[in-house]
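Here is an idea for our session: we take a single protein and study its fold together. To get us started, please write out a protein record for me. Start from the sequence, derive the backbone structure tokens from it, and show both lines together. Go ahead whenever you are ready, and we will take it from there:
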Amino acid sequence: MPPLTAEQLSQMIDQTLLTPYASHDDLRKHCLEAARYGFKTVAINNAPVPFCKEVLRGSGVLCDAAVSFPLGQCTVETKVFETIDVIAKGADEVDYVVNLGEVKNGNWAYIADEMRRIVAACRERGVTSKVIFENCYLTDDEKKRLCDVALAERPDFIKTSTGFGTPPAGVAVGATVADVRLMKACVGDSLRIKAAGGIRTVEDALAMIESGANRIGTSRGVAIVEGYRTLLASR
């Protein structure tokens, strides 16, 4: 199989700006950079979606909105409203965080209902849905159970992390190759996988892709693509 082109790699990147203090100038620069590099989406908080949608008009870059981010501790009703509201305001994709407390409670019926309702809200509106597991807080058995729920409820993607987790010392905050491999082993080609959190270099990104990731969430998309161009030129 031939290597990815730089353009194909760009189309696998959700270029991320989720800081709570991002100004319009920051967001404009972020969007224009995403357009220049041909990234798949800009991954942003809800409030700036209309602003970013206007900046990106005609560029082909999509708006990817974070729902119940980063804790996942809103009620299902709140998450569904937030999803519908941000889609109405221009979101093309939605990444939501599962209720981790209910995962720890073993309340899989709750997790399935939450996922079913949010995925349905996205599907009815033609929007891509991604479920964030936040693996740094989970056991491998919990990750596998979440994959089983996702296989039943059919989001478009399952996602490793927010990148904002605060796990115990020694536990990776964001994406790991081991987690991507575990998720891929569980879902095969039935669902796509987004790796996000701590992916800073072209080597990081390629390791995630080789392990089964179909999308990369990162704030370092420019560095990754430029690094990849250098890598291709050296071959």
Q: What stands out?
A: The chain has one domain: 6-233. The mean pLDDT is 97. The chain is about 45% helix and 15% strand. The longest helix spans residues 108-124.
